Amino acid sequence: MAQYILRRFFSMIITLWLIVTVTFFLMHTVPGSPFDKDGKEASPAVIQNMMSFYHLDEPLSVQYVLYLKSLLTLDLGPSIAHYPDSVNSMIDRGFPVSFQLGIVSLLLAIITGIGLGTIAALRQNGLIDYVAMVLAVIGIAVPSFIIAPLLIKYVAVEWKLLPVATWGSWKHVVLPAIALSTGPIATIARLTRANLIEVLTQDYIETARAKGLSPATIVFKHALRNAVLPVVTLLGTLLANVLTGSFVIEKIFAIPGMGKYFVDGINNRDYAVIMGTTVFYSALLIFMMFLVDIVYGLIDPRIKLHRKEA
Amino acid sequence: MSVPDHLFVPMSQSPGRAEQIVRPRLSLWKQAQIRLFSNKLAMAGLIIIMLLAILAIFGPLMTTHSYSKQDLLHGNQPPSLKHWFGTDDLGRDVFARILFGSRISLTVGIAAALIDFFIGIVYGGIAGYFGGRIDNVMMRFVDILYGIPYLLVVIMLMVVMGPGLLTIIIALISTGWIGMARIVRGQVLQLKSSEYVMAARTLGAGSWYIIRKHMLPNTVGVIIVQITFSVPSAIFAEAFLSFLGLGIQPPLASWGTMANDALPTILSGNWWRLFFPAFFISLTMLAFNLLGDGLLNIFNPKQRR
Prior knowledge:
Chain A has 12 helices and no strands. Chain A is mainly α. Chain B is mainly α.
């Protein structure tokens, strides 16, 4: 176990280093420099000064080493477009917002998805099953950026139940979280349903029934535990989808999260911000997947962590 | 009732016929076809996809309007006989733009899926077939790529290469082939060690024969399913990128850019601007997902997800 974790940790570090490297060199092939401001041409001397301030006049290899060094101290560098704002402080401001939205969406997706899937599986081929699965297919087919404007139009503008946009109280979280979680809800519901139907045909369920356990005990204690295990493996991917998906949702709801800084960074060719955001999100997601793997090994004794699965 | 003895005749024993197959032989494709035709939802998906394809190919001939011609005096008009789906804020015909956008969305989806398929099958096939150290190195590389959130990679590539149709396809391929490679490799590894392949080898079948007669037919289903699912995810990614402003550039239209352009107008009641692109994106995603689900059941009845 310890050996497995150590090896996974090591490969996680290598993955991160590769991401940093590729991101760094990709960023510097982008045509145009952050100091191209159409119309307002700065004098060459000023540009020269700025370039040397940000070390942009050094050879690429020197810049690369400098960047790696500052990364080791968890310093993602200053923003170029919004000096003296630093990438770290942007993450400090933006990430709590995105994280809150992401966690609420994910919890909503897990609870609703497993619930819906369970009900559908228990009433297989019944009306509830049919309705739940039609909803799931719609959830997969309709992108979040279409659900979001519809929610705004009806729930917020016409019925005036919740705020239209921006961020603040818990009320502001509801609509974006719903828009963001429809896809994951559908995925989880379908997966839970399929697994539960299969698990319910297993011999040990028959045994549990034969020895007189109540249906509730059978479903919740014996069947569901096994049926939702594969959902755990999905969590890493779902979190990635929710966090990157929130770029669009944040744009629609004008939420001051990470997505705003990332899209701004792209438009301003702010290398430091784009790189910082990418590295930060990749690190976060890779770490989450690492955690999910370990948790999976802990809750499912059938998985042997020390052997690499094919 | 009694049966006279002379009616009892010993059954003829023709040794050759006992093993004879009476029913017509069903090939893999024939079987798949029969099961597909009996799956109503999958057929619905297939028919919708065909209709969309016809729309994309011949659609622009169906309208006299141009997708890019502006008519500022007739902007934001609701659907009418003249403009079936209304006009946008610049007075462009939404129906013509939807038709034109279907070309872009389907091109992106199908091109990305097919190229993913070629790269994935070669990469995964080599890794699985040779196994051992080669497999280890190749798959470690894939594992690393797999850990990176794909939308970040795609967005970065879009930034580096500049927006455009070709860039979108390349960006989507850069991450899309990984899933296919993993699946093909897993299949090849599994089949390589299966009993019937060993039996065939024991009976003296050559590598090429085994690949052609055993490996391919048994992998093809999984691959088709994977392609069917990767088309809608590519279309979704294109819409997503266009929505962020990183996709197709004006005056070209894709469903994603149209939905993005329509966003500020929904509150003013110009519902048709958002409704039609949203409807077509959803319909396409739905059709491919229905077909994919059906194919999954057909080719892989044991591993229903």
